[in-house]
Design brief:
Layout (H helix, E strand, L loop, with lengths): L13 H6 L15 E3 L2 E3 L6 E4 L6 H14 L3 E3 L19 H15 L3 E4 L6 H7 L2 E4 L7 H9 L4 E4 L6 H13 L5 E5 L20 H8 L4 E3 L1 H5 L2 H14 L4 E4 L17 H17 L6
Bound molecules: phosphoenolpyruvate and manganese (II) ion.
């Protein structure tokens, strides 16, 4: 249960639930949103899986990945055409694929018959991205860009709001309130790792905050999914953290999958390959069963 705290601004108080995010807050202990997106139910016993590359690199690659992840049991194809890359310098291999990437996603969606989640970064690209996206991804870096969030909400498209790596639960729920405030009820929260002093490895930038899953579920009726790929930034840790995410009560899992992980154009340390993904689906399903839930 939420309790009044002495440090408003850090975490969530009872007062916040009533006055800061009344739409996001649960109305009672059993209140949980359950909705359908493109034939996939969120907030039920199913734990939907989003899988795909970090970046939509080429038409051939996204078709191959879509085919493979779908046959292993993924419910959504993920992949960015518009990417928030941390530094402006990049080789041709690292160039965002932008409009072409959206076109290739559309081809994969139609040919393989799998719904798509992809990131939108600027309001002016909303009409284009909305043509293909079944879910709009608002990336961690845009989590508190309120005019942008509002514009996304107004499209009426389902939205996945990634948590900024420096944000409190209070800030995250506040950002989600902006979407519900526009009358858009299909909102999914996504934990993707937070900044902390110790991440246990030189190349790891974030720490997966699994405690936020039950913490958020205490306060909000919205589904919360976990992205262990971005959180760990390290392929050998993805399996255990994905299983732990399911055990934590996550309402969905997002995973980066690439046929040749070391040669992925973006973040090559984090994707798992096809075989690892298909094995992981079975393991996640086994863990889900212990919670009376399922992945398949
Ligand atoms: C992504 O999912 O591709 C991404 C860029 O994630 P984040 O915003 O969490 O860094
Ligand atoms: Mn990324």
């Amino acid at each position: 249960m939420a309790i009044e705290n002495k440090f408003p601004g850090k975490d969530v108080s009872l007062e916040d639930l009533k006055t800061k995010f009344p739409l996001v807050a649960k109305k009672n202990n059993n209140h949980k949103s359950c909705f359908d997106i493109s034939g996939v139910t969120f907030g039920s016993d199913l734990i939907p899986i989003f899988a795909g590359p970090n970046m939509v690199e080429s038409k051939e690659l996204i078709l191959d990945i879509a085919q493979n992840v779908k046959s292993s049991g993924a419910h959504f194809l993920r992949g960015g055409a518009f990417k928030p890359l941390t530094f402006p310098y990049r080789s041709d291999k690292y160039k965002e694929t932008r409009e072409s990437g959206i076109e290739w996603l559309k081809i994969a969606k139609n040919e393989i018959n799998i719904p798509v989640i992809t990131e939108v970064m600027e309001e002016k690209y909303l009409p284009l991205v909305c043509e293909v996206a079944d879910i709009l991804q608002i990336g961690s870096r845009n989590m508190q860009n309120y005019p942008f969030i509002t514009a996304c909400a107004k499209t009426g498209k389902p939205i996945m709001l990634k948590r900024h790596y420096g944000s409190s639960l209070r800030d995250w729920l506040g950002a989600a309130e902006y979407i519900l405030y526009e009358g858009n009820k299909n909102v999914i929260l996504c934990e993707r790792g937070v900044s902390v002093p110790h991440t246990h490895r030189e190349t790891s930038r974030f720490l997966l905050d699994l405690q936020v899953v039950p913490a958020a579920q205490e306060l909000t009726h919205l589904p919360i999914i976990v992205d262990p790929s971005h959180a760990t930034f390290w392929r050998p840790w993805v399996k255990s953290m994905a299983l732990a995410s399911v055990a934590s009560g996550a309402d969905g899992i997002m995973l980066e999958v690439h046929p040749d992980p070391p040669n992925a154009a973006v973040d090559p340390l984090q994707p798992i390959d096809y075989k690892e993904f298909s094995d992981l689906i079975s393991s996640m399903d086994a863990v889900a069963k212990t919670q009376e839930r399922k992945v398949k």
